[in-house]
Amino acid sequence: MRRSHASFGILLLLVVGCFPTFDERNAFWTLTETYGTTSGGGDVGDGQAAAEAEAEFRRTMTVTFNNNHETAQVDASFAAWVYSSSVHSADQQDALLRGGFVQLTRAVELGTAFTLLPGTFVFAGAGLAGALPVRLACPLTETGQGLAISEAITLITPDVLLLFSQPPVSCDSVAFVFGNAIAGSPIVTGPVTSTGGSKTLAQVDVYECMPLRPGLFLKLGGGARAPNEYFEGENVRFDFNEFPDAQGNYAIVTIST
Q1: Which of 64, 85, 216, 233 is the most buried (most CB within 10 A)?
Q2: How many angstroms separate the CA atoms of 124 and 109, rounded?
Q3: CB within 8 A of 67, min separation 6: which ones?
Q4: What pLDDT, on a 0 to 100 scale, did the predictor assign at position 124?
Q5: What's the chain's average pLDDT?
Q6: Using CA atoms in the order 207, 210, 211, 216, what is the torsion angle rounded to 10 degrees?
Q7: Helices (H), the chain
Q8: Whole-angstrom Cα distance, residue 97 to residue 53?
Q9: Could you count the other beta carbons within 10 Å of the beta carbon of residue 235?
Q10: Total domains, the chain
Q11: Is 105 a member of any domain?
């Protein structure tokens, strides 16, 4: 069974945590007013100006979440952001705003792994750093046949995307939870171990632990990408499995065109 979501507006659940202040101002013009920065180039005709106004920042990508655990629901949060240093014009920032991103007006700490400075564009959910709540129903309860439950998000390719439950301070921080579907809430079925309901950042197969660098990152430039990198426009899939792979991972990440 598959459910697709093109924006945060379709998902109404909230996550617990701090709520950052967002500002949908055009940050490029804010910087221009503050520092007197101007863009180079000569005059352009109306046609060229209109084309630039509609220019996209980057191609879109789709992030899919699959719950393959027949008898448990999955609960987590999903965050994605673009650093202000990646944006070079007002048109690019307008494209991000049209694409569902908003701008932070104060610094937000995501555990000890990330500090998002003012001006960072986050994909606008209600949680910490704009995180979107992800809840995947129990396949057996939802379908009666144990078929995987899927959710999909389409967004402009960000610099970083992160699946997490607890703000990451170590690889023992919780990445997602297999919950009690009968109770309808993310009740942990055991301690944070390989047999418990809470699965750690270390149990997402491509996350880095030494140094702590959870998440997936945009690959810039040529050459082969690392397992935790994606090229612009590539798609990402998280599979949450009832049983671990040989390395003890319960969440498997697949990156594809």
Answers
A1: 216
A2: 16
A3: 73, 74, 136, 137, 138, 139, 148, 149, 150, 240
A4: 87
A5: 80
A6: -10
A7: 27-35, 46-53, 90-98, 139-143
A8: 12
A9: 16
A10: 1
A11: yes
Indicate the helix (H) or strand (E) that contains 102.
strand 101-104
pLDDT at 194: 45
pLDDT given for residue 195 in this prediction: 53
Cβ–Cβ under 8 Å, residues 69 and 238: no
Cα angle vertex 111, ends 106, 114, to 5°?
Answer: 65
Q: CA 43, 46, 48, 50: dihedral to nearest 10 degrees? A: 130
41 occurs within a structural domain: no
Q: Could you count the other beta carbons within 10 Å of the beta carbon of residue 110?
A: 22
Residue 210's domain comprises: 2-34+48-256
Segment 38-54, tens digit of pLDDT: 233 334 345 444 444 44
User: Per the domain annotation, does 39 fall within a domain?
Assistant: no
125-136 pLDDT, tens digit per residue, is 899 999 999 999
29-57 burial, b if ≥16 CB within 10 A, otherwise e? eeeeeeeeeeeeeeeeeeeeeeeeeeeeb
pLDDT given at position 130: 95
Q: What are the C-alpha distances in Å from 193 to residues 48, 50, 243?
A: 57, 55, 13
Tens digits of per-residue pLDDT, 1-41? 444 444 433 333 333 333 344 444 443 333 333 333 323 33
CB neighbourhood size of 210 (10 A): 6
